[in-house]
Amino acid sequence: MNRRTALGLLGLGVAASRLEAAHQHLHVLQKNPKDYKLQFFSPQEDALVDRVAELIIPADEHSPGAHAAHVSYYIDLVAAHSPEAAKAEWKSRLAAFEEMARAGHGKPFAELDGKDQAALLDKVSANEKSPGSPAEHFFVDVKKATLFGYYTSEIGLLRELGYQGNQALGSFPGCTHPAGEHL
After folding, report:
1. Cα angle at 169 between 166 and 173, to 5 degrees?
2. Which of 18, 33, 107, 148 could cross-link 111 (Cys pair, CB 3.0–4.6 Å)?
3. Which residues contact 161 (CB under 8 A, 6 or more apart)?
4. pTM recorded for the entire structure
């Protein structure tokens, strides 16, 4: 296991004692995502996490999105190998997020239309820098794990970012955008 993978898994809450097992499951997930078996979330919880992740990094003309990168499986893997206290937080925060959807819209998050789902995410992300409620913490946790999971996946790292591996450069080309036209 390389240092970057180990630090990423630890940074997202994987228990140090579960690091090697998490890495083995991560390898399976990266090579054959369709063979991944949920370890922590129920299928309904995974569907909710998958939808939230897809709303954070949606499919568009530039990227297939978080769903195609199987980010929810990555989040399941991280949660499954976290300490017991973190597992309890994942479950209680997810339940609080689902309750917020029911209280505000009378339906579970998965049954809301795209506009209502986006409105709920706007609400829970308003205090992203200083989350107070468990539902807000759930959003922050999912967003952090989504970004890490997506940009370390083949889709995010290779296809979207165009990473070509470590290369020795004879010269550093610098910025190739015309002045004032940066993304």
Report:
1. 115
2. 107
3. 151
4. 0.74
